């Protein structure tokens, strides 16, 4: 067997042997719109993964990873999804911050922050979006002032995934008074367990709360906990977003395929498949999913180069729109009964939850409109949109 096949066989066997006993009931738990499910148990599972060396598999060995090749990383994420293993709780630390520190951090920052990510001892969240700086991220108003050996941070972040479960937040803040747009921003590592931090959950359409508002009122961050030079945080922040478009999206697509297959089975079972319009939409969903996979594989050359380039926006806009439309298809397959809650007071079916949460797919991690701007300006080289 090739090294990739051996690696795939190894992780498949490990998952089969370990998703048992106390972890058996975690199959299929968690994920977007369902992060509230068995969080403590999923955290214990992820630490079990870490003890066996199955976290951060793509990181270089000197930083605690396995040094897995790109092909091996694809195999890991696909096998993890095929096993229906629980959604990861350490995704933001492992897939976003860790690679950012490896690329831009100081040796001291890597030594301090990477081992707790590998061991799943410290969880991270992302402090980017604000009430007036969501898709227009360059409009960040959260500010940080240098006072001696510390930065003092004041402002508000919103849509902060899993902030209520996190220990740290990487925060994009304005550190140069009077600066505008992309200039004068810095990338700070801020501990959340300190006075001045207030975290307020945001109730979603699904009735759950995995997003949060985070308020910083004179919060402290060590001066040495700035990634990159002061005022150059935009470049670091964009690199982090690039890492978000990485190899793990291949595992995401396994989950998409499982959802599509379940929609097809439901359509056959309840007779919706007899409707030619439903059959046509199912066919288009299938071809769309194949396109998503081939596009993701094509984008892996950017990952191999260090981080996906602006072309990764093509994949984001495509899968987000596809998944939102799958939610709509699922509800139409359910028929009129899909409008009724499964129970009191707001007990949703899996299809209802898919439909409601997938509305956000075209918004979070960069809205479709922003992705189109990136593709137009940075991929196609078209004139930039006029901005005030």
UniProtKB/TrEMBL annotation:
It holds the Pfam family Acyl-CoA_dh_N. Residues 125-219 form the Acyl-CoA oxidase/dehydrogenase middle domain. GO terms for cellular component: plasma membrane. SUPFAM superfamilies: Acyl-CoA dehydrogenase C-terminal domain-like, Acyl-CoA dehydrogenase NM domain-like. Residues 231-380 form the Acyl-CoA dehydrogenase/oxidase C-terminal domain. Its cofactor is FAD. Keywords: FAD, Flavoprotein, Oxidoreductase. Residues 5-120 form the Acyl-CoA dehydrogenase/oxidase N-terminal domain. GO terms for molecular function: flavin adenine dinucleotide binding; oxidoreductase activity, acting on the CH-CH group of donors. Coiled coil: none annotated. The keyword Flavoprotein applies. Gene3D superfamilies: Acyl-CoA dehydrogenase/oxidase, N-terminal domain (1.10.540.10), Butyryl-CoA Dehydrogenase, subunit A, domain 2 (2.40.110.10), Butyryl-CoA Dehydrogenase, subunit A, domain 3 (1.20.140.10). Belongs to the acyl-CoA dehydrogenase family. This is Acyl-CoA dehydrogenase. It comes from Streptomyces roseochromogenus subsp. oscitans DS 12.976. The lineage of its organism: Bacteria, Bacillati, Actinomycetota, Actinomycetes, Kitasatosporales.
């Amino acid at each position: 067997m090739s090294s990739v096949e051996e690696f795939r066989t190894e992780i498949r066997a490990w998952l089969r042997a370990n998703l048992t006993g106390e972890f058996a009931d975690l199959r299929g738990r968690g994920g977007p719109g369902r992060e509230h499910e068995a969080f403590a148990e999923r955290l214990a599972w992820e630490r079990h993964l870490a003890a066996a060396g199955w976290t951060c598999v793509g990181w270089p060995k000197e930083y605690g990873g396995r040094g897995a090749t790109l092909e091996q990383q694809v195999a890991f994420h696909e096998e993890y999804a095929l096993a229906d293993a629980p959604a990861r709780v350490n995704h933001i630390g492992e897939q976003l911050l860790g690679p950012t520190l490896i690329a831009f951090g100081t040796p001291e920052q890597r030594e301090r922050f990477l081992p707790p990510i590998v061991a799943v001892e410290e969880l991270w969240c992302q402090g980017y979006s604000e009430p007036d700086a969501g898709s227009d991220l360059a409009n960040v108003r959260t500010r940080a002032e240098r006072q001696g050996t510390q930065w003092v941070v004041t402002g508000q972040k919103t849509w902060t995934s899993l902030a209520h479960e996190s220990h740290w937040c990487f925060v994009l803040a304005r550190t140069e008074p009077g600066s505008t747009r992309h200039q004068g921003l810095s990338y700070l590592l801020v501990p959340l367990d300190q006075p001045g931090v207030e975290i307020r959950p945001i109730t979603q359409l699904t009735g759950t709360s995995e997003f949060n508002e985070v308020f910083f009122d004179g919060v402290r961050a060590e001066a040495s906990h700035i990634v990159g030079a002061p005022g150059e945080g935009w470049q670091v922040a964009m690199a982090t977003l690039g890492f978000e478009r990485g190899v793990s999206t291949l595992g995401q697509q396994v989950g998409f395929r499982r959802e599509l297959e379940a929609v097809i089975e439901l359509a056959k079972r309840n007779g919706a498949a007899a409707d030619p319009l439903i059959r046509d939409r199912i066919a288009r969903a299938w071809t769309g999913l194949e396109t998503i996979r081939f596009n993701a594989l094509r984008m892996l050359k950017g990952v191999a180069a260090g981080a996906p380039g602006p072309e990764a926006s093509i994949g984001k806009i495509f899968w987000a729109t596809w998944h939102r439309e799958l939610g709509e298809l699922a509800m139409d397959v359910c028929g009129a009964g899909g409008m009724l809650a499964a129970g009191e007071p707001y007990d949703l079916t899996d299809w209802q939850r898919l439909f409601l949460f997938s509305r956000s797919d075209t918004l979070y991690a960069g809205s479709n409109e922003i992705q189109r701007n990136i593709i137009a300006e940075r991929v196609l080289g078209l004139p930039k949109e006029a901005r005030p």
